[in-house]
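Protocol step 4 of 6: structure prediction from sequence.
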Amino acid sequence: MELANIYLFTGTESFLISNKIRRIVGESGADEFNISSYDEEETSIGEAVRDAATPPFMSEKKVVIVKNPLFLTSEKNLDPSEASAFLNYLENPLPSTILIINACNLKFDERKEVVKKLKKVAHLEDVRPLSEIEITGWVKRQCTLNNVTIKDDAVKTFLSLAGTNLLNAKNELDKLIHYVGPSGTITADVVRKVVVKEIYNDVYALTNAILAQDKEKTINIYNELVASGKDINYLFNLVARSLRETLLARIMLESGYTQADIAERMGISSGRAYYLVKNARGIDFEKIKINVKKLGDLDYKIKSGQIDIKSGFEFFLFGL
């Protein structure tokens, strides 16, 4: 199949998008000197456009990848000269360049001219998570490729613990495959032994499950953490703080703050800011506001003796 000049990837499944981009890069035949990547949180689109408009070096093709194109959202606006340059390139792309826009987890401002034009001229792929049937098949294929057998009940146990996010699922499946070794068999007991140890001792997984509105995973993680001896007061306070921080990050993003600004204002590391911003972009704004308010009300009831923390926190989690 002939490659397009411009690709636009949207959706929430970062692992699948990354795989599709790698496939395009491989099929392009571009060497390492003609493959460049730009993160629009750190650079301007102008740099990527200038690169895309430059012929490849001793090669038939070059690939320019643009990540985090915030100028397509309401968070950031291009200055007139950059907007004009980008629109001009979209009208007349260089035939030898493949421009890839990776807009994973971004919500477009459909009113913007750059959004309308890009969606009109680009090969658009909206990449959504696999269904349970599809990811079950994927797990089995990965095991077969690595000469490993996985039992049907082990697949179900794995998905209930690791979830259906492919990036996370792949990381955990790789650990299982390495654990049993070539010609080994993955059973449900092996899954519980390996995956539970890696995922469920991480209390931040609980917050991420709440942000994803995944009730089943939230309850599973909570029960596992409590069974392992984690203090409920600690879990409640961590979740409440994390949700407040995520809501604040979302508000700051919509006010034009960058990831670096958020790290500085909130007094957190750049790594923490990265994941906070990533979560903030993917949340349902109204739902997180409601959940933050619920936790605030619950905190008051706990401190005023109207409800015990265990019952109150579990009522909140089961009501997601």
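Step 5 (inspection) to follow. The mean pLDDT is 89.
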